[in-house]
Design a protein that fits this description.
Number of domains: 1
Radius of gyration: 15 Å
Largest sheet: none
Number of strands: 0
Helix content: over 70%
Order of helices and strands: HHHHH
Oligomer: single chain
Shape: elongated
C-alpha cells in the first residue's frame, strides 16, 4: 500500500508542478496584461483534485489519521483555483488580478501542505 501512496503523491506533485509551471510561464505576459490560462494549468488542477482525493482515501483505508481541517482548507483553495482556471480558460487575456490569484492560491496550497503539521 505504501508504494501506491508514494506513486499517487508523485502524481500529485506532477499536478502541482503543471499548475504552478503554467502560471510561471505566463508571468511576463501578466506584466503586459496578456496572460492567459494555459491548458497545463487546468490539467494540473484536475490532477491535484483527483490524486488528493485518492490520497485521503488511501490513508483512511490504511487506518491513518487524516487532518480533515487541513484537507478541507486545501480542497477549498483548489476549488477556487479550478473555478478561476475553468471559467477563464478560453479567454485570450485574463485580468492580472484573477491570474495572480491563481498563482497566490497555488502557492498558499503548497505551503499549507508542507508547513501545516
Amino acid at each position: 500500500m505504501d508504494v501506491l501512496i508514494h506513486a499517487v503523491v508523485g502524481l500529485h506533485i506532477i499536478g502541482i508542478a503543471s499548475l504552478l509551471g503554467g502560471f510561471l510561464t505566463q508571468m511576463k505576459a501578466m506584466g503586459r496584461g496578456e496572460a492567459r490560462m494555459v491548458p497545463a494549468m487546468l490539467h494540473g488542477a484536475l490532477t491535484m483534485l483527483v490524486t488528493g482525493v485518492a490520497l485521503v482515501g488511501l490513508h483512511q483505508a490504511q487506518g491513518d489519521t487524516v487532518n480533515t481541517v487541513k484537507i478541507g482548507v486545501k480542497l477549498a483553495l483548489l476549488v477556487v483555483i479550478l473555478g478561476l482556471v475553468y471559467v477563464k480558460r478560453d479567454e485570450e487575456k485574463v485580468e492580472p488580478a484573477a491570474f495572480g490569484a491563481v498563482g497566490a492560491l497555488t502557492t498558499a496550497n503548497i505551503f499549507i501542505a508542507v508547513l501545516w503539521v
